Amino acid sequence: MSTMQTLLTVVVLLALIALGALFIARVNAQQAGRMATHRHADRMQSMRQRIRRRPRDGARPGPLAGPPPSPPPSGKTGGDL
Which residue from 15, 20, 61, 75 has the fewest beta carbons nearer than 10 Å? Predict the structure, then answer.
């Protein structure tokens, strides 16, 4: 084996070890729930919340259908009728 080939082998092995260490650190952080979020993730989340909260055409937010269905008479459930 030549010196250059040995040096290249050492560099490749060190790079693989570094990638493995980064992968293990990422998995550990993900399991602990402290994963670094994408830099725009918080901005996109706030935009989604604003879009959801804003009523369209000036309409008041509220139920789209009528009142909720009344319970069955005599305290029976729907399957007992």
Answer: 75
